[in-house]
Amino acid sequence: MSLRFAAAALAALGAAAPAHAELYYLIVAGLGGEPAYEEQFGKDAAALAAVARRTTAASRVMLLQGEGATREAVVTSLESLRMRAKPADSVVVMLLGHGSYDGETYKLNLPGPDIDGDELAKLLSDVPARSQLVVNATSASGAILEKWAAEGRTLITATRSGFERNATRFAQHFAAALAEGSADINKNGAITAQEAFDYASRSVADSFEKDGALATEHPQIAGGAPTRFTVARLAAAGPAEPAATSPAVAALVAEREKLDAEIEALRARRESMPNDQYLAELQRLLVALAEVQGKIDAEQPRAPQ
User: Are 27 and 144 in a shared domain?
Assistant: First the structure.
């Protein structure tokens, strides 16, 4: 075999080798119905984004919230996933805010025109990633359980039907699950969809019991392989970031490391703290972490993935 032929054969084998599977996130915080709820959902979305950026490259995390979470932006982001994600990749889509259901049609309430469940289902089906996790934490989210079911897709909803219409607590507890060591049942440093759901659903039920209130949401999980879908890692994973290019970036990286250390210290104190206090402090740190990471990304963009 000539050297030229051998080189060509090796190149062909390299070209045919499967690409490394990637993980993409899309987090959408729509309207909250009331200012207090909207603020809470915004914090939940930022906390989820912070966890996502600890798990995969920031360039593969899309966050839509506030006035930016329009129907057009949601459609554009899902079309971006359709173009970027490969069949071997995994995709996580998280929907927060207020959802509505009239007995036939589910809608995600957004600034400007809403988007209905049928259109969202079609956009999700167009994404080629064979492994998908859709977390619909909105009110009335249980209405989508049958219509959004698809091979390879795990569905998690905050409610068991479209008729549980009160503002939900699930997103806050799900964000805590993705950052909480006690949610990691097998202690492998990764949180699966099933582990996150189990932790969050228990936490939601406990919160209603503590308040002495009748539970107005009953989280559900269906489809896919939730025990094998890694949705978050407790420690940063993936390739190292480029070295800081300026004193400003170096200071931001140091601030991020300090916040990471504070989160670890908070986890260690978990058992000695009231649950509400722990969740509030964890969310504060995750939101701060998301803000710092956003500044780092703006100062020193990652190379395209």
Answer: yes
Q: Which residues contact 213 (CB under 8 A, 6 or more apart)?
A: none
Beta bridge partners of 230: 192
Does the pLDDT of residue 53 top 80, yes or no? yes
Cα 270 to Cα 127, 176, 266, 276, 277: the distances in Å are 38, 12, 6, 11, 10
**CA pair distance 74, 27, nearest whole angstrom:** 9
Containing structural domain, residue 90: 20-233
The residue-averaged pLDDT of 53-79 equals 94
Handedness of CA 274, 231, 31, 137 (dihedral sign): negative
pLDDT of res. 264: 76
Partners of 92 in beta bridges: 25, 133
What is the DSSP-derived secondary structure letter of residue 59? Answer: G
Output the pTM of the full model.
0.79
| 217: Cα within 13 Å, side-chain hemisphere | 32
Which residue among 198, 233, 268 closes a domain?
A: 233
Task: Based on DSSP, count helices (H) and strands (E) in the chain, helices before strands.
Answer: 8, 11
Backbone angles phi, psi at 95, to 5 degrees: -115, 125
